[in-house]
Amino acid sequence: DFYGCLVGSEMCIRDSLKRVIDYVKMNIGERITLADMAGAAGLSRMHFAAQFRLATGLRPHDYLLRCRIEAAQELLAGTNQRVIDIALAVGFQTQAHFTTVFKRVVGDTPRHWRVAEARRFKAEKAQMATRHDRGACTPLAVMAAGWPGRSAAAETRAAIGF
Asked: How distant is the alpha carbon of residue 106 from its chain centre?
């Protein structure tokens, strides 16, 4: 445990932080207290809070909230779950608190962020399709793809009904 390490040993601090990070990830939807995080690190609450802030620049609670928001962003972008269900799934007790924290961290409400993210995804997808389509229909690209070869003239005649 941490007490067996030399004080300030970078390796031990890194191991303690990894245990805390893993604990938070595994329990993101549950109630997580400072005592829980300190226990995962093998430290007292006050010592853990001080060491965590020195190592990360964040208070443990702020870190926890950011982890919850990141998990929520994944669910907002990747599912059609209701915002309240996502809020509860990542450990918030109310949608109002979730929305307040989300807006403070991300700069937008969960609903508006989800809509904007969907638009960004569609735009990126369309842009990728356009990039792929430019070279995909050249005769060399068609032959390289192993498609049975018809001449370009035969393809054009078939397309217009001759």
From this structure: 12
Written in H, E and C, the secondary structure of the chain is CHHHCCCCCHHHHHHHHHHHHHHHHHCCCCCCCHHHHHHHHCCCHHHHHHHHHHHHCCCHHHHHHHHHHHHHHHHHHHCCCCHHHHHHHCCCCCHHHHHHHHHHHHCCCHHHHHHHHHHHHHHHHHHHHHHHHHHHCCHHHHHHCCCCCCCHHHHHHHHHCC
Give the tokens for residue 82.
């209701």
Nearest-angstrom CA–CA distance, 25 and 23: 6
Each residue's pLDDT tens digit, 55-91: 899 999 999 999 999 999 999 999 999 999 999 999 9
The pLDDT tens digits of the residues spanning 99-135 come to 999 999 999 999 999 999 999 888 888 888 776 555 5
CA distance 59 to 38: 12
The sign one gets for the Cα dihedral 122, 125, 127, 129 is negative
Check: CB of residue 13 under 8 Å from CB of residue 21. no
Instruction: Show Cβ contacts of residue 103 under 8 Å, excluding neighbours closer than 6 positions.
Output: 109
